[in-house]
Amino acid sequence: MIKVLSPVLLVLVFAIGSLSQPVSKTATNDKRSAIAVSPTETAQLTFAAHGGEKLKKLQTLLLKGSAELSFQGQMLPAAFSTAVSGDRYYFEIVTAVQQLKQVFDGRQTHSSIPGISLPPVTSLGFPLLPRIGDKGYNVSALPEGGKKRYGFRLTTPEGFYTDFIVDEKTNQVKSYESKWLDGSDRAITTSVAIDEFQLVDGLLIPKKYAQRFDLGPITAYASFKAKDIKVNTPIEDAAFAVPR
Predict the structure, then answer these.
(1) Biggest alpha carbon distance in the chain?
(2) Which pLDDT value is given to residue 216?
(3) Alpha carbon distance 182, 195 (integer Å)
(4) Could you tell me which CATH class the domain 2-240 is placed in?
(5) Which residues 6+ apart lie within 8 Å of 90 measured at CB?
């Protein structure tokens, strides 16, 4: 069963830590054409729309809720819980047949799924937004494709990148796509679409979102709905301890 569930569970890692901030009326009413705005400007507008400096002050994020996993025709209901504190994180997912957990303590990763090594969650997706403007985090244009998209690419110093697809009117992220190479230089991609937000202590947190995860010939899907969201709640260091 672990071999069946593992690709689905990887999806969860890149969904945690997702948050955004209500956009100002100025950003909402911005009528500028996406073509006229450079990627750097777009990134700055997105950063502002999602909280600006307030994003950088976010210390912890806790989410608990339900999930539905789909892989090779199997539909599996589950419960999930995640926590992020700086570069550290953990996640747990519980199905009717198994409970699985992964922890990153800031230096090393431990997973109950043997043989799987993932980049830190802060290297992909929404957790990258606070890094806009930081040294070593490069903003560039989205790659050209058949469909015109408004947004930007943000690449980490390690070479991980995320393509943020942005709503042209609100400057809020509506979806994002990430890609990286694993230890065998195999391309792995994930994409997330946000359906619903919840306002928590001034931060607009993704409450309902769907994710696709592509691992070569394997594709997995998951939908998540957070029922309990907390920000800046103290988390004990023991929660991120890697088992010895």
Answers:
(1) 55
(2) 67
(3) 29
(4) mainly beta
(5) 82, 83, 101, 102, 103, 104, 239, 240
Angle ∠(21,162,16) on CA atoms, nearest 5: 55
CB 168 within 8 Å of CB 29: no
Select, from the ranges 131-145, 146-160, 204-218, the one with the highest average predicted confidence (pLDDT). 131-145
- Say if CB 105 and CB 88 are below 8 A apart: yes
- This prediction has a pTM of 0.78
Given a cut of 90, whether residue 227 has pLDDT beyond it is yes
* DSSP conformation letters of 105-118: -SS-EEESSTT---
Give domain limits for the chain: 2-240
pLDDT mean across residues, the chain: 79
Residue 219's alpha-carbon distances to 27, 107, 129, 170, in angstroms, are 36, 29, 26, 31
pLDDT for the residue 7: 43
C-alpha span between 147 and 131 (Å, rounded): 27
